[in-house]
Amino acid sequence: MTCASCHDTHTDTEFQLKTRQRTNDLCYTCHLDKEGPFIFEHEPVQEDCMQCHEPHGTVANRLLTANEFMLCLQCHEFHFHAGYEAAEDEWEVGGITRESPFGAQSFNVAFTTKCSQCHQRVHGSDLPSQTVTGGGSGFVR
Fold first, then answer.
1. Contact of 120 with 33, CB cutoff 8 Å
2. Cα angle for residues 82, 131, 70 (degrees, 5° grid)
3. How many C-beta atoms lie closer than 10 Å to residue 74's C-beta?
4. Distances (CA, A) of 28 to 45, 60, 109
């Protein structure tokens, strides 16, 4: 990629972008899989890609404006399991007993490092998640 991939010095558009449409439309020229439409849409994605991404580079992975989970926590709250410590070798999560092979801190570390460990489809999904409270909008498939 070069500057000319997105910018054209011979246009009068804002920031000299190659398109007169939304910024997202320019992003979708390369990132077609993120466009949708999705049945379960992550609304900030539809508004503007730059709410989460900085196209000119960042220290965070995937050009995110902040590292996961801090980026997600700007709009979302901790899940019920993220702030808890596990009890010894087993712990109940959502009514299911799960093993905790790495001790009491393992669940806390696992669930607060990267939200995309469980929510892989953060841009949107056509398949309902298996979360009961999410009503299908958990973006896990």
1. no
2. 35
3. 12
4. 11, 21, 34
pLDDT digits 0-9 by tens, 43-86: 888 889 999 999 998 888 889 999 887 888 888 876 655 555 55
Instruction: Tally helices (H) and strands (E) across the chain.
Output: 3, 4
pLDDT tens per residue across span 97-114: 766 555 666 656 655 667
Closest CA to 15 of 55, 70, 47: 55
Distance CA 2, CA 14 (A): 18
Strand partners, 40: 125
In contact, 49 and 27? CB cutoff 8 Å: yes
DSSP 8-state assignment for residue 125: E
- Cβ–Cβ < 8 Å for 38, 124: yes
Q: What are phi and psi of 48, to 5 degrees?
A: -165, 125
Rounded Cα–Cα distance for residues 24 and 17 (Å): 11
